[in-house]
Protein backbone atom coordinates (compact mmCIF):
# COMPACT_ATOMS: atom_id res chain seq x y z
CA UNK A 1 0.00 0.00 0.00
CA UNK A 2 1.36 3.41 -0.98
CA UNK A 3 1.09 5.77 1.98
CA UNK A 4 2.88 8.90 0.69
CA UNK A 5 1.78 11.10 -2.18
CA UNK A 6 5.47 11.70 -2.90
CA UNK A 7 5.80 7.99 -3.73
CA UNK A 8 2.57 7.52 -5.69
CA UNK A 9 3.21 6.87 -9.39
CA UNK A 10 1.44 9.04 -11.93
CA UNK A 11 -1.07 6.95 -13.86
CA UNK A 12 -3.32 7.79 -16.81
CA UNK A 13 -6.79 6.79 -17.91
CA UNK A 14 -8.61 7.68 -21.13
CA UNK A 15 -12.19 8.94 -20.89
CA UNK A 16 -14.33 11.38 -22.86
CA UNK A 17 -11.56 12.07 -25.34
CA UNK A 18 -9.15 13.08 -22.57
CA UNK A 19 -6.17 11.29 -21.07
CA UNK A 20 -6.42 12.11 -17.37
CA UNK A 21 -3.29 12.00 -15.22
CA UNK A 22 -3.87 10.87 -11.64
CA UNK A 23 -2.32 9.40 -8.52
CA UNK A 24 -3.81 7.17 -5.86
CA UNK A 25 -2.68 6.01 -2.45
CA UNK A 26 -4.00 4.58 0.79
CA UNK A 27 -6.11 1.46 1.37
CA UNK A 28 -7.97 0.09 -1.64
CA UNK A 29 -11.18 -0.64 0.23
CA UNK A 30 -14.10 1.58 1.15
CA UNK A 31 -15.40 4.76 -0.47
CA UNK A 32 -12.49 6.70 -2.03
CA UNK A 33 -11.86 10.41 -1.50
CA UNK A 34 -11.39 12.27 -4.78
CA UNK A 35 -9.48 15.56 -4.44
CA UNK A 36 -10.57 18.49 -6.64
CA UNK A 37 -7.84 21.07 -6.88
CA UNK A 38 -7.47 24.84 -6.96
CA UNK A 39 -6.71 27.50 -9.55
CA UNK A 40 -3.44 26.86 -11.44
CA UNK A 41 -2.74 23.66 -9.50
CA UNK A 42 -1.31 20.40 -10.77
CA UNK A 43 -0.79 17.11 -8.93
CA UNK A 44 2.24 18.43 -7.05
CA UNK A 45 0.33 21.34 -5.50
CA UNK A 46 -1.51 19.26 -2.91
CA UNK A 47 -0.10 19.57 0.59
CA UNK A 48 1.37 16.12 1.32
CA UNK A 49 0.36 16.42 4.98
CA UNK A 50 -3.29 16.66 3.94
CA UNK A 51 -3.13 13.97 1.25
CA UNK A 52 -1.10 11.53 3.33
CA UNK A 53 -3.19 12.25 6.41
CA UNK A 54 -6.46 11.36 4.68
CA UNK A 55 -4.81 8.40 2.93
CA UNK A 56 -3.90 6.90 6.30
CA UNK A 57 -7.54 5.78 6.53
CA UNK A 58 -9.03 6.18 3.05
CA UNK A 59 -8.19 5.57 -0.57
CA UNK A 60 -7.23 8.99 -1.97
CA UNK A 61 -7.27 9.92 -5.65
CA UNK A 62 -5.84 13.18 -7.00
CA UNK A 63 -6.00 14.11 -10.67
CA UNK A 64 -5.21 16.85 -13.18
CA UNK A 65 -8.18 18.63 -14.71
CA UNK A 66 -8.57 18.53 -18.48
CA UNK A 67 -5.77 20.46 -20.19
CA UNK A 68 -3.83 20.90 -16.94
CA UNK A 69 -0.49 19.35 -16.02
CA UNK A 70 -0.13 15.94 -17.63
CA UNK A 71 -3.82 15.66 -18.64
CA UNK A 72 -4.61 16.26 -22.30
CA UNK A 73 -7.29 18.39 -23.90
CA UNK A 74 -8.32 22.02 -23.73
CA UNK A 75 -9.11 23.53 -20.34
CA UNK A 76 -12.78 24.55 -20.01
CA UNK A 77 -13.73 28.11 -19.09
CA UNK A 78 -16.75 27.21 -16.95
CA UNK A 79 -16.99 25.47 -13.58
CA UNK A 80 -19.86 23.37 -14.92
CA UNK A 81 -17.70 21.90 -17.70
CA UNK A 82 -14.93 21.14 -15.21
CA UNK A 83 -17.48 19.33 -13.04
CA UNK A 84 -18.61 17.25 -16.02
CA UNK A 85 -14.97 16.32 -16.68
CA UNK A 86 -14.51 15.28 -13.06
CA UNK A 87 -17.59 13.04 -13.24
CA UNK A 88 -16.26 11.50 -16.45
CA UNK A 89 -12.95 10.78 -14.74
CA UNK A 90 -14.56 9.31 -11.61
CA UNK A 91 -16.84 7.02 -13.61
CA UNK A 92 -13.94 5.95 -15.84
CA UNK A 93 -12.28 4.56 -12.71
CA UNK A 94 -15.32 2.34 -12.24
CA UNK A 95 -16.50 4.17 -9.12
CA UNK A 96 -20.20 4.23 -8.24
CA UNK A 97 -19.71 6.52 -5.25
CA UNK A 98 -17.01 8.80 -3.87
CA UNK A 99 -16.36 11.37 -1.21
CA UNK A 100 -15.19 14.70 -2.62
CA UNK A 101 -12.63 17.08 -1.15
CA UNK A 102 -12.63 20.32 -3.09
CA UNK A 103 -10.36 23.26 -2.35
CA UNK A 104 -11.05 26.74 -3.75
CA UNK A 105 -11.98 26.24 -7.43
CA UNK A 106 -12.27 22.55 -6.60
CA UNK A 107 -14.91 23.39 -4.01
CA UNK A 108 -16.94 25.13 -6.71
CA UNK A 109 -16.61 22.06 -8.93
CA UNK A 110 -17.66 19.84 -6.01
CA UNK A 111 -20.84 21.86 -5.47
CA UNK A 112 -21.89 21.35 -9.09
CA UNK A 113 -21.19 17.61 -8.93
CA UNK A 114 -23.21 17.27 -5.72
CA UNK A 115 -26.13 19.03 -7.39
CA UNK A 116 -25.97 17.30 -10.78
CA UNK A 117 -24.89 13.81 -9.67
CA UNK A 118 -26.14 13.40 -6.07
CA UNK A 119 -26.05 9.60 -6.25
CA UNK A 120 -22.33 9.74 -6.98
CA UNK A 121 -21.36 11.62 -3.82
CA UNK A 122 -21.50 10.26 -0.27
CA UNK A 123 -19.90 13.11 1.69
CA UNK A 124 -18.48 16.49 0.74
CA UNK A 125 -15.59 18.54 2.11
CA UNK A 126 -15.25 22.03 0.64
CA UNK A 127 -12.54 24.44 1.76
CA UNK A 128 -11.57 28.00 0.83
CA UNK A 129 -14.49 28.26 -1.55
CA UNK A 130 -17.81 29.97 -2.11
CA UNK A 131 -21.19 29.57 -3.79
CA UNK A 132 -22.07 30.81 -7.24
CA UNK A 133 -22.42 34.58 -7.08
CA UNK A 134 -20.57 34.64 -3.75
CA UNK A 135 -19.20 37.90 -2.37
CA UNK A 136 -15.88 38.93 -3.85
CA UNK A 137 -15.39 35.89 -6.10
CA UNK A 138 -15.47 38.10 -9.18
CA UNK A 139 -12.30 39.74 -7.84
CA UNK A 140 -10.16 36.57 -7.87
CA UNK A 141 -8.52 37.53 -11.17
CA UNK A 142 -7.52 40.99 -9.93
CA UNK A 143 -6.21 39.66 -6.60
CA UNK A 144 -4.28 36.87 -8.33
CA UNK A 145 -2.63 39.30 -10.72
CA UNK A 146 -1.74 41.79 -7.98
CA UNK A 147 -0.26 39.15 -5.70
CA UNK A 148 1.68 37.61 -8.57
CA UNK A 149 3.29 41.01 -9.17
CA UNK A 150 3.99 41.37 -5.43
CA UNK A 151 5.64 37.95 -5.47
CA UNK A 152 7.78 38.79 -8.48
CA UNK A 153 8.96 42.03 -6.90
CA UNK A 154 9.90 40.30 -3.65
CA UNK A 155 11.22 37.06 -5.20
CA UNK A 156 8.58 34.96 -3.47
CA UNK A 157 5.94 32.43 -4.48
CA UNK A 158 2.50 34.04 -5.12
CA UNK A 159 0.90 31.47 -2.80
CA UNK A 160 2.73 33.11 0.11
CA UNK A 161 0.45 36.12 -0.42
CA UNK A 162 -2.65 34.42 -1.82
CA UNK A 163 -2.95 31.58 0.69
CA UNK A 164 -1.55 32.98 3.94
CA UNK A 165 -1.88 36.02 6.17
CA UNK A 166 0.97 38.51 6.49
CA UNK A 167 1.27 37.93 10.24
CA UNK A 168 4.27 36.13 11.69
CA UNK A 169 2.23 32.92 11.94
CA UNK A 170 0.99 33.24 8.38
CA UNK A 171 4.43 33.92 6.91
CA UNK A 172 5.92 30.97 8.75
CA UNK A 173 3.07 28.67 7.71
CA UNK A 174 3.46 29.73 4.09
CA UNK A 175 7.17 28.93 4.04
CA UNK A 176 6.56 25.53 5.64
CA UNK A 177 3.78 24.76 3.14
CA UNK A 178 5.91 25.70 0.14
CA UNK A 179 8.75 23.51 1.45
CA UNK A 180 6.38 20.55 1.75
CA UNK A 181 5.35 20.97 -1.89
CA UNK A 182 8.94 20.19 -2.86
CA UNK A 183 9.11 16.86 -1.00
CA UNK A 184 8.39 14.87 -4.14
CA UNK A 185 11.66 14.67 -6.03
CA UNK A 186 10.93 12.31 -8.92
CA UNK A 187 8.35 12.24 -11.71
CA UNK A 188 6.95 15.65 -10.90
CA UNK A 189 4.00 17.00 -12.85
CA UNK A 190 4.12 19.57 -15.62
CA UNK A 191 3.23 23.17 -14.61
CA UNK A 192 -0.02 24.64 -15.85
CA UNK A 193 0.15 26.58 -19.12
CA UNK A 194 -0.74 30.27 -19.27
CA UNK A 195 -3.61 29.40 -21.61
CA UNK A 196 -5.13 26.94 -19.16
CA UNK A 197 -4.59 29.35 -16.28
CA UNK A 198 -6.49 32.02 -18.20
CA UNK A 199 -9.35 29.63 -18.88
CA UNK A 200 -9.61 28.81 -15.18
CA UNK A 201 -9.63 32.50 -14.23
CA UNK A 202 -12.50 33.07 -16.68
CA UNK A 203 -14.39 30.14 -15.18
CA UNK A 204 -14.06 31.49 -11.65
CA UNK A 205 -15.03 34.99 -12.78
CA UNK A 206 -18.17 33.63 -14.42
CA UNK A 207 -18.96 31.66 -11.25
CA UNK A 208 -18.72 34.86 -9.27
CA UNK A 209 -21.17 36.61 -11.61
CA UNK A 210 -23.80 33.86 -11.55
CA UNK A 211 -27.05 34.13 -9.69
CA UNK A 212 -26.94 32.49 -6.26
CA UNK A 213 -27.82 28.82 -6.55
CA UNK A 214 -30.39 26.99 -4.47
CA UNK A 215 -28.20 24.73 -2.35
CA UNK A 216 -31.06 23.18 -0.39
CA UNK A 217 -31.02 20.18 -2.72
CA UNK A 218 -27.53 19.15 -1.54
CA UNK A 219 -28.76 16.95 1.29
CA UNK A 220 -25.58 15.00 1.94
CA UNK A 221 -23.23 15.75 4.86
CA UNK A 222 -20.86 18.65 4.16
CA UNK A 223 -17.80 19.90 6.03
CA UNK A 224 -17.03 23.55 5.21
CA UNK A 225 -13.57 24.83 6.19
CA UNK A 226 -11.56 27.99 5.67
CA UNK A 227 -9.24 30.45 7.33
CA UNK A 228 -10.99 33.33 9.05
CA UNK A 229 -9.10 35.89 6.91
CA UNK A 230 -9.39 34.58 3.34
CA UNK A 231 -8.61 37.32 0.79
CA UNK A 232 -9.09 35.28 -2.38
CA UNK A 233 -12.56 33.91 -1.59
CA UNK A 234 -13.72 35.98 1.39
CA UNK A 235 -14.42 33.87 4.46
CA UNK A 236 -18.00 35.13 4.64
CA UNK A 237 -18.68 32.81 1.70
CA UNK A 238 -17.86 29.82 3.88
CA UNK A 239 -20.29 31.03 6.52
CA UNK A 240 -22.89 31.54 3.78
CA UNK A 241 -22.35 28.02 2.45
CA UNK A 242 -22.72 26.45 5.88
CA UNK A 243 -25.93 28.39 6.46
CA UNK A 244 -27.49 27.47 3.12
CA UNK A 245 -26.54 23.79 3.03
CA UNK A 246 -29.06 21.59 4.92
CA UNK A 247 -26.48 19.31 6.58
CA UNK A 248 -23.28 21.30 6.98
CA UNK A 249 -20.79 22.11 9.69
CA UNK A 250 -18.30 24.97 9.58
CA UNK A 251 -14.71 25.30 10.77
CA UNK A 252 -12.81 28.61 10.53
CA UNK A 253 -9.13 28.62 11.50
CA UNK A 254 -7.75 31.66 13.38
CA UNK A 255 -5.08 33.91 11.87
CA UNK A 256 -5.32 31.97 8.62
CA UNK A 257 -6.18 32.83 5.05
CA UNK A 258 -7.22 30.97 1.91
CA UNK A 259 -4.86 28.10 2.71
CA UNK A 260 -6.20 27.58 6.21
CA UNK A 261 -6.46 23.81 5.78
CA UNK A 262 -2.76 23.72 4.93
CA UNK A 263 -1.69 26.01 7.76
CA UNK A 264 -3.75 23.92 10.22
CA UNK A 265 -3.23 20.63 8.40
CA UNK A 266 -3.08 18.49 11.54
CA UNK A 267 -6.36 19.85 12.89
CA UNK A 268 -8.02 19.69 9.47
CA UNK A 269 -6.98 16.09 8.85
CA UNK A 270 -8.22 15.03 12.28
CA UNK A 271 -11.63 16.62 11.68
CA UNK A 272 -11.83 15.35 8.10
CA UNK A 273 -11.12 11.78 9.18
CA UNK A 274 -13.77 11.97 11.88
CA UNK A 275 -16.24 13.45 9.38
CA UNK A 276 -15.51 10.87 6.68
CA UNK A 277 -15.53 8.01 9.17
From TrEMBL:
Keywords: Hydrolase. One of its GO terms (molecular function) is hydrolase activity. Transmembrane segments: none annotated. It holds the Pfam family Abhydrolase_1. InterPro entries: AB_hydrolase, AB_hydrolase_1, AB_hydrolase_fold. Residues 32-262 form the AB hydrolase-1 domain. This is Alpha/beta hydrolase. It comes from Lentzea aerocolonigenes (Lechevalieria aerocolonigenes).
